[in-house]
Amino acid sequence: MDASFIEDYKDFLKNGKTERECCRQIVGLSEKYGYKDINEVEALHPGDKVYVTKFGKAVALFNIGTESIEKGLNILGAHIDSPRLDVKQNPLYEREFLVYLNTHYYGGIKKYQWLTQPLAIHGVVCKKDGSAVQVCVGEKPEDPVFCISDILPHLAQKQMKESAADFIPGENLDLILGSDIPPVRGADSDKSDSAEKQEKDKAKKLILSLLKEQYGIEEADFGSAELEIVPAGAPRDLGFDRSLILAYGQDDRSCAYASVRAQLEVKDVRRTSCCLCVDKEEIGSVGATGMASHFFENAVAEVVARMGAYSELCVRRCMNGSNMLSSDVNAAYDPMNGDLYDHENASYLGAGIVFNKYTGSRGKSGASDASPEFIARLRNVLDQNNVRYQMAELGKVDQGGGGTIAYLAAKYGMYVLDAGISVLSMHAPWEITSKEDMWQAYNAYKAFLLLQ
Questions:
Q1: pLDDT tens-place string over residues 174-195
Q2: Edge to edge, what strands does the sheet with 244-247 contain?
Q3: pLDDT attached to residue 452
Q4: Phi and psi at residue 80, in whole multiples of 5°?
Q5: Is the whole model's pTM more than 0.85, yes or no?
Q6: CA–CA–CA angle 276, 371, 256 (5° rounding)
């Protein structure tokens, strides 16, 4: 295992807690490897390397091969969004001398896990004059952090009787931004209600003045902002042996990073290779930057057009003839909750990249069921390259399940298989992965990109 690869991965996680931050890093890294913005390229030939972006939140990298693109691509497809809290459009309010930021959770979370965590604010505020203010507060040692409060155990008798899904309503996942000192009780008791209201708003006004002073942001600017609440802090080695990584957003930025590095470092490909990093997977792959959009198809069309033989039929043949690994994570076996897993069909930390023939839930609902012929070809190439892999499912059949972007790629007729990294505590603010699995995934993705 290359220790520098792992440290680079941890830096990627540290500096990429939103889709925009990940996309910027991927573009910057690709440019160091000679990739160019496709809008600056008029024609493409074997050996050329280009990238296509959408709204700064999705990116596709292409390494043009010597074989006709009509025969298809080798594609690594991952997503770079992660569960989090999003800031609402009218978020600031003051209640009993505490100032809060109103949020709406994004993706599948256990809401109670986000209470009392040190949290940071990342994102962008777009102003009417066309300028954009980049926001990142809570990551530097000198920065303040933010937090969602919880009830003390002494007063939590009712809360403790409720289910985990219910005891913290989504509307209560609001961050504390600041506070004011309440007036002394009994003093100035003849104040009018309006004067008292003005006094209560004082803390909110102070927060707004600080935002204006430090960022040039007005309260109305929240209406055109994209601000995300994420755990504050950097990835850490986990365990005395330092074999594991504890970090936010490893679903699915672990697979995205391994895919990007594989794409950048594989040279002289016959089949054109592609690394696709999309948004919105955690909420159904919707929107202009999700896999359900036409982003990827449009990007392929732009590449085909610059190769001098554009036709809709050529694009369709390219998509239909492609191979794809849906680079997404799988649930690692949890010994503390072993009854949720089929032991013989579970994935284990440190056992290598995971092949998941089908995802979906219960009766394979929503699954993309991979072709055994394709899996056999992958097994062969990985064995030839001494890459460790394991075959697994997400959990026991009746326990639930999950989905990936695989079924959205499969609709084009291409071969698709889910292949990613095992994650313990998936969708928690801090997730656990194995360094060995990261290394094996990276090598597996490199071997796949050379598949004929």
A1: 999 999 888 777 655 555 555 5
A2: 236-238, 244-247, 431-434
A3: 86
A4: -120, 10
A5: yes
A6: 20
